[in-house]
Structure formats: C-alpha cells, structure tokens
Amino acid sequence: MRTITTLGTAGILLGLLGASGAACAQSSITISGVIDTGLAYSNNTGTGHQNTVGVTNSILGVSNIGFSGKEDLGGGLSAIFNLQAGFNPGNGTMSSSGDLFSRNSLVGLQSNSGTLTAGKQWNFNDDWLVGSVFKGGYNSGSVFKFSEFDAVSEIYNNTVKYVSPEAGGVQAGFMVGFGEAAGSVKTGQLYNAAVKYNQGPVYVALSYDHEQDGSASVASLGNDLKLTTLGGSYTVGNFKARLGAAYSDISGPGTFQSISSQPASKAYAVEAGVDYTFIPAFTGSADVLYRRNTTFSNDTKVYRLLGIYSLSKRTSLIMNLAYLRNGDGATEALVNTSSGTVGGGYANQHQMSLALGVRHTF
What we know:
globular, 2 helices, 55% strand
C-alpha cells in the first residue's frame, strides 16, 4: 500500500501570498490492491463428466488494483473517492469485460454525520455480511454463487449511498440505484437498507434488497427481486462461530443487475461456519451451506474447508476444498459446465473443487 500526501494548490498559493488565517487543505491518495491466484482442480465440468485443472484467477476474491483518496475540507468535512479495477492474473485481462473500474467507482463526502457517496458501489450485504458471516470466494462454495442469491454480494451501477456514524455499536445505511429509463423512475430501480450491531464478541447484521426489472416498458413495470439477509457471529478467544440466512423472492424473469433472468421462484439459503486460529499464522474454517428452492422443490448442499497460512502481513497461502451435492433436480455448480442452465450445472450432478494458491496484498 502506497500513500501520497500533498498540499492543496489553493493552500500553497495562499501561503506564498502570506494570507493570514488561511488553512491548507491536506489530501492523501492511497494505491492498494490484491493478487489472488493459484491452481485449481474441479470434477464434473464441461459436459458434466470431465475434469478441469489449471490456474484460477480468484480463490477468495477478485484480484484488483485500486486508488482511494481523502481531502480535508475543514470543519470535520472530507471529500473521498475510490476507484478499483479488477483483473485476471492468469492472462492480465479485466475481470469484467468492458468495465475498467468494475470493483468500485465512487466519490462522496464524509463527516461526523455519516458518509454520502455516488457511483458504482457494493451493497450492504457485501459490506457487512460477506467475510464476517458468509465466507467469500469463487468456485469455492460461497452462498452468493447460488443462482438465486448473487445479490448477497453485488456491486450496482448509478447508485447513491448513505452510511450513518456508529453509535453504541449500531450503524445503519441506505442505498438507492437509478434505472435511468426514459419516462419511468421505477424501471431498473433498486434500493438496499441495512443495519448492523458490533459490540464486544457479538456481531449481527440485517439487510433488505429490492431490485426492479430493467427491461420492463413504461406501461408494464415488470418483475422484481427481493432479498432479505440476516447473519451474525460470536467470538471467544481464538474461536468464532458464524450463522447466516437469506431469503430470495423472484416474481419472474427480467433484466436484473445481480442475477440472471429466471422463472418466478422463492428460495432460502443457510450457512453455518466456524473459524479457529490454531497459531497466529494459521486459521482454519469449516462451513456447511444449504439452499432450498421451495417453488421447484429442489435443494443443494455444500461442504467447505478453508485454510489460510500467513507468510507475512501481506502474503498468505490458501487451501480451499468444497464439495457440492444437488438433489431433486437442482442444477447448481461450483464451476460452470456447458449445460446452459440457470445454476450452471446438470440436474443432480455433484462437484468437487480443490484450490491451492497465494494471496498477496499491497
């Protein structure tokens, strides 16, 4: 991580001119990033009966490089910005085709009254539940990889977001996204409200998302996606217990930012996990995930083991083992096949994925 501190141009000029009582605004710019890559093996890929071995671009998170900054405007008010570009270490391409700053693109104001930002931003599920309650990762058994639950970790375009200051361990936030469709405020609109409590060993967060179909005409407002997510953790010494649940209600197919178009359905997902720090350098985690689509009466189970060994403050070795089991016609997948189904897998097909890699932050 590299931080560059500068004096505002106006402050320098006023200082040179000897203006009395003029305050020099101080700014800081931070360059940071993550490189997360390794080797991965997955079975039952391709046609459903093939194996895949190769370099994986993400184990715990998408590799990225970012630029963030803060300028003191005086009176407790600061201007902030954050730009993050995701990339694939395996071939150097952008992680999201055509999107340079695919991981963050925002600017805003921060004060004792809270933080107000505008741009491309993550929802509160990702801010307050992923990592602390739900384990992250790609092709490794994360709850947001289930077809109905991608909004558990999602970044949205054209949003305005407010986060309150923390008081007594309680913090709240609200985000609204504008579909920007001509003649209709509601088409493509989304909003997300959340609250969290973090005091001592107890952590709890609750989030509600509502996303409107962006392809609907002005006359027909179309379908929507509603997602309610609740999770918490309790820490005692080296031990941490986590429990989270999400309920998804999709009224019908549509163009949503977070999920692919799929039929009307209701589903819930639960994740229970534990983390234990065996030694300061090594933490092990175990998780069980259960997904149930009550509309189509199918379910998916995922069992996951994760180990992180820190070589230094910035570099870690990662081992992730996940096993997914579909039942009653479910088509979920850890690694997408050529099936073309919503979940990316074949009906009742099981998958295992093992990833060994390195994660470096700077």
